Each structure stands twice: as structure tokens, then as C-alpha cells.
Amino acid sequence: MKIGILGTGMVGSTIGTKLIQLGHDVKMGSRTATNEKAIAWAQKNGIHASQGTFTTAAAFGEIVFNCTHGVASIEALNLAGAHNLKNKILIDIANALDFSKGMPPSLSVCNTDSLGEQIQRAFPDVKIVKTLNTMNCNLMVNPNLVANGDHVIFISGNDAGAKAKVEEILREWFEWKSVIDLGDITTARATEMLLPIWILLMGKYQSPNFNFKIVR
Amino acid sequence: MKIGILGTGMVGSTIGTKLIQLGHDVKMGSRTATNEKAIAWAQKNGIHASQGTFTTAAAFGEIVFNCTHGVASIEALNLAGAHNLKNKILIDIANALDFSKGMPPSLSVCNTDSLGEQIQRAFPDVKIVKTLNTMNCNLMVNPNLVANGDHVIFISGNDAGAKAKVEEILREWFEWKSVIDLGDITTARATEMLLPIWILLMGKYQSPNFNFKIVR
């Protein structure tokens, strides 16, 4: 499958590399076509890896991953262009962490709204599925790194077909065993609001290699 | 020990009853000394149970539990009186859930502040310890109800001695095995922000008998 990755950070490169390993064609997009991290990533990952602008990566992907910083996501998606994303699944991994007031960061949107909803409102013809935003990127693509994968991932979105496809990606490509569909995109508020405790726990454990499990 | 319980709802009566069973003297406080739920609770729980106003319950307790609705907690604590709480441990279980805009509720304070912090600022001479606010009341006093108690409870507060005492209460009185001290009272933001996903999961499971575990 042809997949676009928006963002050149740890999340984008980790997801992109995993998708290449699975045999997909991946284009990593950034603000310019000369981003050094994107060029290095594409060179390292073989002929199925390429890079370009947000626009060309969005146009390239049959499915697109939003791996940009949450506070810059809307701007990045505007650069990608609504017409390049139209009717596609956009997997939104971003968290709207605002570091401008120091550590720990706060959220630039939460409680009565969420980044997932903001993106869905701004791009009504795109199928936004919020997921993968509640754990470290190494766990995103390899949940078996901790506790034999016995922990959870959440999924939120308005389009049932898009959520079914994303759940298939999570289970079959990334090997997630426990996927919890929380409901429509408004439920992204709840997962985005997990970030404050995730950040505290990362500081406490001095490691990002942990995740939430729900016991009943 | 003499313990004051502020609030006559499910949380207050469940905690109060557990404390009575453990042999403590408990006074349940409410806005008036004629609250029917408080009178019924006191009559049902024997000679070590009593009831009165927020003021008399706060004055009675060597330790006080805030089991009021979060949006009304500051007002209830003002009625209790700062002088009646001075230098005492106040275990703050409340969540600032705002149901005024329908379901699901939003939080009336979050992200850059928390109810725990608001209470600590309003009552600087009281040792606020935020805990027990991230699970159903039956689990609060009996974590072994699910998964043999293999799940977590968080604790936040500025006073190390107060937190040590509350951790002892959680472990020895209520049988919690995994108590995570997140840090000072500002970390209450993170646990209060767990409520949105807790509420979604309760709806999904149609049961409040679940809790979070952290796997590493």
C-alpha cells in the first residue's frame, strides 16, 4: 500500500520504517522537500522509501499518518491540502502538547474539544481516526516490547469503515491484541487527556517503555 | 481514629462504612444536621457512626475525607471551616465533573490547574492529599474486587508526611498493593484528567468494576 507520513520526528520515522519493513511504499512529508531528517530517513530505508513536502506525501498516500507536533498539525494539514486528503483515512497520532510555558507541558486543547475533533472539523471530507497517541513510538509498532503486548490501545473516529481498517492495521501490521473502540471522534478528548499522566509516569520510571492496561 | 467524612453520597457512605468496619469513629457531615441520607447511614452503622454538619464533621476528624461533588467542594470546605481543618490531612477524592451541559460531563477545572490545587490554595494550612479519585467507590475500599487487586492507585500532595500516612491508609486499611506517588499537588491534574476515559470505559463495559494498571 502507498502510505504518506506527515512529520519527520521520532514518531514519523519509527512508523515509516515499520511500514517499509512490512513491504509498503512510504513517502515522508515535511514543510520543505529538503528536510535533512527526511532525506536521511529515505536514503536509509531503500527504494520503497521517499520523501517530499506535506503536499506530495499526502497526495502519495492511500492512507496518511499525522505524525506532526499537535500544536502545528492544522497548519501542516493545510499545507498538505484538503484535496490531497479527500476521502482518505488520516490516522491522527498527534498530541497538542504546549511546551511554551515550560515542563510539564499543558494541552493546547482539551476537555470540551480535542485535536482530533479540530482536525475533523477543519477537514470534513477526511476520515480522521485518532489512535496510537497514548504510548511511545517504539511501542506503537511493537506492543510486544512490554508485557507480551498485554496492554491497550484506543481508537476514536466517526467513520465505521475507516475505524475497521485502522483496527486491522493495528492488529495485523503492528500486532496489537487489545484495541478499544471508544466511539466517535469526540472520544479523542479522553485519550488526549491521558498525556499528562503518561508524562508523569515517564518521568517516574525514567523510561517510555510502559503502557496502560484495563483490568476488570 | 476519629475520622470526618464530608459528603453523603455513594463515595462518602462507602468509605464511612468501611472505616466503621475497621473500628474507627466516623462522623459524616453535610450541609445541614438533618440530612436524611446521613441520618440513615449513622443509624445503620452503630454507635461508632454519627452525623452532623460539614463543620462538626471537620472538627471531629483527626483525618478528613472530601467526598463532596467536585464542583461544590470549595463551598463545602468553606462551610467546614479552615480552623476546623487546620494542620489536618484532607484526603481529596472529589472530581470536578460538570454535568450542566449534559453527558458526558466535562471537567470544571483541568489542564493548567486542578481541584486538588484549588483546595490547597484555598486552605494553605491543610495537608491536601489527592487520591482514590480514579476508580469506583467499591474498589476504593476493596481493590481485590477485580484482578486480585493487581491495578494502581495514584497519590498527589505537597506534604511528604501526610502522603506517607495516606499511603499507609491505602495499603493497610484498604489493601491497595500498588500505590504510585506522582509528586506534589499539581500532579492531581493528571489523575483528575483520567475521568473522561474512565467514564467512557464505564459506558463501554456497562460496569464501574474496572481499573487502570500500568505494565512495563
How do the helices and strands line up, and which of them pair or pack?
2 copies of one chain form a homodimer.
Chain A: E1 2-6, H1 10-21, E2 25-30, H2 36-44, E3 49-53, H3 54-60, E4 63-66, H4 73-80, H5 82-85, E5 89-92, E6 97-98, E7 106-107, H6 115-122, E8 127-131, H7 137-140, E9 152-157, H8 160-173, E10 178-183, H9 188-192, H10 195-205, E11 211-215
Parallel strand pairs in A: 1-2, 1-4, 2-3, 4-5, 5-8, 9-10
Antiparallel strand pairs in A: 6-7, 8-9
Helix pairs in contact in A: 3-4
Describe this structure as you would to a colleague.
2 copies of one chain form a homodimer. Chain A has 10 helices and 11 strands. In chain A, the strands form 2 sheets. Chain A has an 8-stranded mixed sheet with strand order 3-2-1-4-5-8-9-10, with helices on both faces. The radius of gyration of chain A is 16 Å and the shape is globular. The mean pLDDT of chain A is 98. The N and C termini of chain A lie far apart (38 Å). Strand 11 of chain A pairs antiparallel with strand 11 of chain B.
